[in-house]
Amino acid sequence: MNFPEELYYTKDHEWLRVEGSIGTIGVTDFAQSELGDIVYIEIDTLDESVGRDEVFGTVEAVKTVSELLMPVNGTVTEFNEGLEDNPEAVNNDPYGDGWLIKITIDDVSELEDLLSRSAYADMVGQ
Question: Does domain 16-107 have CATH number 3.40.50.2300?
Answer without folding.
Answer: no
